[in-house]
From TrEMBL:
Domain of life of the native organism: Bacteria
Keyword presence, Mitochondrion: no
Residue intervals of the Arginyl tRNA synthetase N-terminal domain: 9-89
Cross-referenced CDD domains: Anticodon_Ia_Arg, ArgRS_core
Protein family per UniProt: Belongs to the class-I aminoacyl-tRNA synthetase family.
E.C. numbers: 6.1.1.19
NCBIfam families tied to this protein: argS
Motif ('HIGH' region): 125-135
Protein name (database record): Arginine--tRNA ligase
Reaction catalyzed: tRNA(Arg) + L-arginine + ATP = L-arginyl-tRNA(Arg) + AMP + diphosphate
Localisation: Cytoplasm
Keyword line: Aminoacyl-tRNA synthetase, ATP-binding, Cytoplasm, Ligase, Nucleotide-binding, Protein biosynthesis
Source organism (scientific name): Streptomyces avidinii
Length: 589
């Protein structure tokens, strides 16, 4: 089915046509339509237009109003102040537009006019290292952006740029070579993520201790790095064991997070190894990079160190080794040249902003990025504890991500259990809903904050039924599903002929805004805007539920059907919006 024009776009078109008619010499003009507290919409564009045409804005506004038909879409228009238009929509138009949305699987949300190919770089753990709270935001924000962009029709390529290369592997591989059974599993049964991480932790600690205490081992480990970079088959096969063991662990954590990570999407630092020499050659030959004290560097006028001297991006070190910049630049070449990307999104900690600014500028100078291909860092802030400081354990250690998720599920399960008897949940449903609510709470707390800001991790608040939490949204959805189950023979039917109560109008107008909001969240890379929309939708629904009886006391048949229709569309919009954020909506809660 074709997308459904929103009420805002329909009104915008009417006002734009009237503006063009009243002042044809001005050409196409944006009415600057905004949502308003005084009416449903306010058009603010006449003021600037009158100034340009040296006309009286209030007189021009009156002429424009005379050229706008009312009755079907627009109920009334009032000229306010120095030429603002306050516009009220008819009840009929609200319900007819919503009925058209309800008849579409996509809820009338349009596909983007010119979709491209976006590569999103997110969820980037390190091989042989435990995932901690710092890995949470990249995974959660990135996964939501993937879903939102795909829903708009964009082709999205996921990339998990795991840390699977570098000097530390020399130490690990050499130790495994000398202690060959350290990564063996106890049985042939499927290995758990915890067991895989325990193996890796044990091996890492043992190899580190030996590296620090035994000079001969240290020499052998460093030689092993050279073998790894040279592609020695035995060394590569041992390295692969670390990667495979780490993936067992990674996937178990992502599974807890209810995230689908596919093997082909995991392309770590090693994936660009064969391109590094050519990347350096292209940069040096084009003059983008120059040799400085033996290192291959890119300089920038606006990047200087504390001493006032230029701080370069080092692509290749003076000893011939490659830094992160060489890998990141090679990844850009691959993503643009081989994957056909029109946009690259990097969901990376804000503390790496300078690095990415320099990398993107280097890629632009080299011609790999241009007006047709852009790269952006979706930079995120830090997860803080209740005290406003970076989130740590009592011992000052970084918090393990699995511990955090397990505790969230445990707290959420307790909240679900309290209400379980009232809604008739089985033990299996309590456990399942505890997962959905706990993981949803963690994701929503992250996604309801602008990515660039730090946020406080407060589990008590996150699993609360009150306030801006995912549980509040999930509860609103479950309440609607309960109403639908208890509606008996009554079915949701749209009745455009009815006069709407204020709470029905407010809910209807907000439901109609869903498509525009999705487009905005996609364009601005801002999942928090979708979270805010859904919270407001739940709040408006709560007011509607309190003021407009749906089942009890039983309203007149057509009124009840129309209210059930609003309930049903609200539930579908909540469910779709939450799923785009990676959060599940239980049928009973």
């Amino acid at each position: 089915m074709a997308s459904v024009p929103s009420l805002a776009s329909s009104v915008n078109q009417r006002v734009a046509d009237a503006l063009a008619s009243a002042l044809p010499e001005a050409g196409a003009t944006d009415p600057l339509l905004r949502r308003s507290d005084r009416a449903d919409f306010q058009a603010n564009g006449i003021l600037a237009l009158a100034k340009k045409a040296k006309a009286n804005p209030r007189e021009l506004a009156t002429t424009v109003v005379e050229g706008i038909p009312t009755g079907d879409l627009i109920q009334e228009i009032e000229v306010s102040g120095p030429g603002f238009l306050n516009i009220t929509i008819t009840d009929r138009a609200i319900i007819e537009t919503l009925a058209a949305r309800a008849g579409d699987d996509r809820l009338g949300v349009p596909l983007a006019e010119n979709p491209g190919t976006t590569v999103i770089d997110y969820a980037q753990p390190n091989v042989a290292k435990e995932m901690h709270v710092g890995h949470l935001r990249s995974a959660v924000i990135g996964a939501a952006m993937v879903e939102i962009l795909e829903f708009t029709g964009e082709k999205v390529v996921r990339r998990h740029h795991i840390g699977d290369w570098g000097t530390q592997f020399g130490m690990l591989i050499q130790y495994l070579l000398e202690h060959p059974h350290e990564l063996d599993h106890k049985s042939d049964e499927e290995v758990s993520g915890e067991e895989a991480m325990s193996n890796l932790n044990r091996l890492y600690k043992a190899s580190r201790a030996l590296f620090d205490s035994d000079e001969e081992f240290k020499t052998r480990a460093r030689a092993r790095v050279v073998d790894l970079q040279a592609g020695d088959p035995e060394t590569l096969s041992l390295w692969q064991r670390f990667v495979d063991e780490s993936k067992i662990y990674f996937y178990s954590v992502f599974n807890k997070l209810d995230m689908d990570i596919q093997d082909p999407d995991v392309v770590g630092e090693s994936g660009y190894n064969d391109m590094l020499v050519e990347t350096c050659k292209l940069l040096e030959e084009s003059g983008v990079a120059v040799r400085s004290n033996g290192a291959l560097c890119v300089f920038f006028d606006d990047v200087k160190g504390p001493d006032g001297n230029p701080t370069p991006l080092i692509v290749q070190k003076s000893d011939g080794g490659f830094g992160y910049a060489a890998t990141d630049l090679s990844a850009i070449r691959d993503r643009v040249g081989n994957l056909g990307a029109t946009e690259l999104i990097y969901v990376v900690d804000a503390r790496q902003s300078l690095h990415f600014k320099m990398v993107f500028e280097t890629a632009r100078r080299a011609g790999w990025l241009n007006d047709e291909v852009k790269a952006v860092q979706l930079a995120f802030g830090t997860v803080l504890g209740k005290d406003g400081k970076p989130f740590k354990t009592r011992e000052g250690e970084t918090v393990r991500l699995v511990d955090l998720l397990d505790e969230a599920v445990e707290r959420a399960t307790a909240v679900v259990r309290e209400k379980a008897e009232k809604v008739g949940l089985t033990e299996a449903e309590i456990v399942e809903n505890g997962q959905y609510v706990g993981i949803g709470a963690v994701k929503y707390a992250d996604l309801s904050t602008s990515a660039a800001r730090d946020y406080k991790f407060d589990l008590d608040q996150m699993v609360s039924l009150n306030g801006d939490t995912s549980v509040y949204l999930q509860y609103a959805y479950a309440r609607i599903r309960s109403i639908m189950r208890n509606a008996g023979n009554r079915k949701p039917v749209a009745h455009p002929e009815l006069e709407l109560a204020p709470a029905e109008r407010a809910l209807g107008l907000h439901l109609d805004h869903f498509g525009e909001l999705i487009a905005e969240a996609a364009a601005d890379h801002a999942p928090h805007k979708l979270a805010a929309y859904l919270y407001q939708l739940s709040s408006l629904y709560t007011t509607f539920y309190d003021q407009c009886p749906v089942v009890k006391p039983e309203p007149e048949l057509v009124v009840g059907e129309n209210r059930l229709f609003l309930c049903d569309l609200t539930a579908r919009t909540l469910s779709k919006g939450m799923s785009l954020l990676g959060i599940r909506t239980p049928e009973k809660l």
